[in-house]
């Protein structure tokens, strides 16, 4: 009995001692911040990495690091808050250390592979071509210098650019290089403007007629009938050789004389070609407008932000206009840079009727708001306001490789139209317009607009 009691007491002491010696290990090193799921095997490797000492531990640690595949995506420049945690297998949470937060927070999806690592970057579709470069030159240079592989999305609907490599350091450098390439592209002429703030003028029929006559006279595209009248072939003003037919009756015979004017037309075409003038450099009358600000909005988020900015400043624009209608006077011609002999852009100068400065103040409200929003990139933010109504632009030339120094000889045009009275017209709306896309009216597609005081209403 006593012996049995002694054995029980001794066994109990052994169990208690065993429980006291069996403690959980908590790693002392800082844990990097991740979002994603880590398997139990990975969790065990994290919590046992520092248990052993000596060479065997270091070898195991290096092996685990090589097998860790990270896909990183920069999403924010703000540090994580102390409340942010990472769930591991839905049951364990690790607190991120602020000391480990870099300037950009990186989202990491983790998996175990043989030694390959990858980084995923979100690059908008219109910008992907700059990462590739002409003939793949930019992509090739980055890949060769940093020993990585750049994988582009398989479809236009996707915007995930993947960088693969064996070293996280090289992949990070590659992502920084790509960011630099994109920043240079959006701030340069390489990325063209997609939208602009416009004051539509094409809604005035009398002005459209003057524009059609202006283009027809210069291009020689006037079809003359027997009565001496003229027939404009619509807003498109299609270029073609015109034949005049004279019908003469003599006795019972009908002689048809076709006076070909193709030779004369061809001669004029050659002259215009020598001057660098063709139909494509003229603006379409149905798109005639005043330009307030040019914008590069390469994704839907930027377009939505621009629309929101325009709506939010509506009351400030009205205040600048003193809640009164505004009209402009167009007269003469002017070159934007260059001279009439080597013109790039020819436009009609804009004068505010009454010369109170209300229109300029309203446009400055618009420009300042868009600059403050960050939607105006590069040197455009420092450009001074210059209201203009473009009539001809060499950059619109078709069937030719675009050249930034392309020009045309407009001296004869200035001789004839240099003092042209285009007329006075009210400004009724302000549009966020999309280039290269048109509404049913023929004017640029309107993404957002605000109405100005109606000139037909008495105050």
UniProtKB/TrEMBL annotation:
Protein name stated in the entry: Activating signal cointegrator 1 complex subunit 1
InterPro entries (UniProt xref): AKAP7-like_phosphoesterase (IPR019510), ASCC1 (IPR009210), Cyclic_Pdiesterase (IPR009097), KH_dom (IPR004087), KH_dom_type_1 (IPR004088), KH_dom_type_1_sf (IPR036612)
Species classification: Eukaryota, Viridiplantae, Streptophyta, Embryophyta, Tracheophyta
GO biological process, one term: DNA alkylation repair
PROSITE patterns: KH_TYPE_1
One Gene Ontology MF term: RNA binding
Keywords: RNA-binding
Gene Ontology annotations for the cellular component aspect, listed alphabetically: nucleus
Domain K Homology: 115-183
């Amino acid at each position: 009995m006593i012996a049995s009691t002694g054995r029980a007491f001794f066994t109990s002491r052994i169990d208690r001692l065993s429980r006291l010696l069996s403690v959980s290990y908590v790693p002392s090193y800082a844990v990097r911040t991740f979002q994603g799921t880590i398997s139990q095997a990975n969790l065990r490797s994290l919590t046992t990495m520092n248990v052993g000492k000596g060479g065997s531990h270091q070898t195991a640690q290096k092996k685990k690091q090589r097998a860790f595949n990270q896909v990183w995506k920069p999403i924010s420049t703000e540090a994580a808050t102390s409340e942010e945690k990472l769930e591991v297998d839905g049951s364990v949470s690790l607190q991120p250390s602020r000391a480990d937060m870099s300037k950009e927070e990186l989202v990491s999806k983790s998996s175990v592979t043989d030694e390959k690592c990858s980084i995923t970057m979100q690059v908008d579709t219109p910008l992907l071509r700059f990462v590739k470069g002409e003939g793949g030159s930019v992509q090739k240079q980055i890949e060769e210098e940093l020993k990585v592989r750049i994988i582009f999305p398989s479809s236009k609907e996707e915007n995930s650019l993947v960088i693969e490599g064996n070293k996280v350091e090289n992949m990070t450098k590659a992502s920084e290089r790509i960011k630099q390439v994109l920043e240079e592209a959006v701030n340069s002429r390489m990325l063209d403007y997609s939208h602009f703030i416009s004051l539509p003028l094409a809604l005035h029929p009398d002005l459209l007629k003057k524009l059609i006559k202006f283009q027809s006279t210069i291009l020689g595209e006037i079809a003359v009938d027997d009565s001496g009248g003229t027939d404009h072939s619509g807003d498109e003003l299609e270029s073609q050789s015109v034949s005049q037919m004279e019908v003469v009756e003599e006795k019972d015979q009908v002689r048809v004389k076709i006076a070909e004017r193709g030779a004369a037309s061809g001669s004029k075409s050659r002259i215009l070609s020598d001057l660098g003038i063709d139909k494509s450099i003229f603006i379409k009358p149905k798109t005639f407008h005043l330009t307030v600000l040019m914008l590069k909005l390469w994704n839907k988020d930027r377009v939505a932000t621009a629309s929101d900015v325009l709506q939010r400043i509506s009351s400030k624009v009205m205040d600048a206009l003193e809640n009164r209608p505004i009209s402009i006077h167009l007269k003469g011609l002017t070159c934007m840079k260059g001279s009439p002999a080597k013109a790039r852009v020819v436009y009609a100068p804009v004068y505010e009727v009454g010369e109170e400065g209300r229109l300029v103040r309203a446009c400055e409200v618009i420009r300042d708001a868009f600059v403050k929003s960050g939607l105006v990139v590069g040197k455009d933010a420092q450009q001074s306001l210059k209201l203009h109504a473009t009539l001809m632009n060499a950059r619109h030339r078709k069937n030719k490789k675009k050249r930034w120094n392309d020009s045309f000889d407009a001296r004869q045009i200035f001789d004839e139209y240099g003092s042209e009275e285009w007329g006075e017209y009210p400004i009724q709306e302000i549009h966020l317009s999309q280039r290269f896309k048109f509404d049913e009216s023929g004017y640029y597609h309107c993404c957002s607009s605000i109405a100005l005081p109606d000139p037909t209403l008495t105050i």
